[in-house]
Write a structure and sequence with these properties.
With 203 residues, the chain is mainly alpha-helical. It has helices at 15-38, 51-79, 94-98, 103-121, 128-152, 168-175, 180-202, and strands at 40-41, 48-49, 157-158, 161-162. It has one domain: Arp2/3 complex 21 kDa subunit ARPC3 (Orthogonal Bundle). Helix content is 66%, strand content 4%. The strands form 2 sheets. The protein has a two-stranded antiparallel sheet with strand order 1-2. Strands 3-4 form a two-stranded antiparallel sheet. α5 (128-152) runs antiparallel to α7 (180-202).
Amino acid sequence: MTTKVLADQFGADEGIGLWLRRFAMIVLGVALLWLSAKVKVMTEPVPVTLQTFAIMAIAMAYGARMGVAVVLAYLALGAMGEPVFANTPERGLGLPYMFGPTGGYLAGFLTATLSVGLLSDRGWDRSVWTAAPAMAVGLAALYLPGILRLAYGFPIVIMGANFSGFDVSKAIEFGLAPFILADIAKVALAAITFPIIWKLLGR
């Protein structure tokens, strides 16, 4: 069973109005991801940004289908060389950047959005007691590809770049430990925010 997500409460439900609303949602979502990538505290090997919060918020508000559409559009812009990711253009652009150390986390944006979006489609964003587990699932779905990429790398070469990985312990040390507490705080904020918004809409 699916239900209306938060974004479905605004705008037309059919015809040209529906397509205009979807287009506006994608543009807004991509802009939010772009902006959140630039609000950061520099650390190694990846920056702490607001993107975890943005990903969870988009997935909850848009649901799986539109949320994934936003992330795919965002990744497509990055693949074309637009400086939409954290630390771009300083650390490269396009596909070489996407297959670098942060590449697994970019893939995790998709898995997290899909996971949280599917749960939001089923009404898990209506209560803190369901939103919090949904966010926990999303956080795990985001980190897993990131850690795997750091640990094992990508078995490809692009423009002469070597995308080999670290070992698992170093991947956890550099790719999980410095960020997990901040990300838990971000998803906790999102888990609290959405039920409050639904209650306000109900009034």
